[in-house]
Amino acid sequence: MADILIAEDAPLQQTIIQQFLQPAHSIVGCTTEEDEAVELTAKHDPDMVIMDLDLADGDGMTAARRIKDRSPDTKIIVSTALVAEDVKERTREIPVEAYLMKPYSENDLLEAIESALPSE
Predict the structure, then answer these.
(1) Quick count: other Cβ atoms within 10 Å of Cβ 22?
(2) pLDDT in tens, 15-40
(3) Whether the Cβ atoms of residue 15 and residue 105 lie closer than 8 Å to each other
(4) How far is 48 from 18, CA to CA, in rounded Å?
């Protein structure tokens, strides 16, 4: 079981991700904002952040970079509708553990989580 923070600006998508994750994983928080994603990561020290790139008050790419700078072991899975190849390439520079294009299945998300987390 991983502790996961969800940073997603769309309430419906937040709900879908929560349903995909529970009960296999623990959700430590949900946010729609860049600064709050960084703050909640510092506060809760989750294993992973599911990060939308288009947040209500900013940029998920910037939030992911800030999180990795502060907490390099925190895994990040990008969850986005942005299809431009340059966007995907820029996430590799952060680096993120996975890049999921919306819409994705529950199985896609759970597989990305499993492959990003260290084996026990």
Answers:
(1) 11
(2) 999 999 999 999 999 999 999 999 99
(3) no
(4) 14
